[in-house]
Amino acid sequence: MGRSLAFKERSTMLLSYLITFFISMVPLIELRGAIPYGMLVCDPALGFGEALAISIVGNMLPVPVIFFFARKVLEWGKDKKYTRKFFTFCIEKGHKGGQKLREKSGRGLYFALLLFVGIPLPGTGAWTGTLAASFLDMDFKKSIVAVMGGVLLAGAIIGTLSLMGVNILD
């Protein structure tokens, strides 16, 4: 009896980890949804530290793939009959927006990227920031560091707000 109860607890915890991990990988939701889910919905199976760590890892995992392949997919799709208009629009918008950001930020482009990813607003985050870095032809390693810094900043902000929410609910 005790053994099956312990197994059930471990499987519940594993499921909480996996759901939190996969939520953090979803564009637009990312760790902004994963941390509160992990802390509020899965609690007590998943605590603050675990929710934060799992969300950060899950949010950063797709970043290299986005950096190297998203732009190539857009460029491939701009020559196709059904995706031509949309993909061309995305590419042109990315180039124009990137040039404006580059002109405004000057030498602080990587810091601007960090803040863009780190301020938890709709439309910002690791996915969008990495795609912007790819369009700007930014250095991969420096971009990853900036995006990671932004993810850590967003994690700290969302984690703090989630902890405050947990204290309000108690």
Strand content: under 5%
Number of helices: 8
* pLDDT < 50 runs, ≥5 residues: none
Which structural class best describes the helix and strand composition? mainly alpha
What is the gyration radius calculated from CA atoms? 19 Å
Largest sheet: none
Shape: globular
Number of strands: 0
What does the average pLDDT come to? 84
Compressed to H and E, one letter per element, the order equals HHHHHHHH
General description of the model:
This protein is mostly helical and 170 residues long. The radius of gyration is 19 Å and the shape is globular. The mean pLDDT is 84.
What keywords describe this structure?
170 residues, mainly alpha, 2 domains, 8 helices, 79% helix, 0% strand
Summarize the structure.
By secondary structure, the chain is mainly α. 79% of the residues lie in helices and 0% in strands. The mean pLDDT is 84.
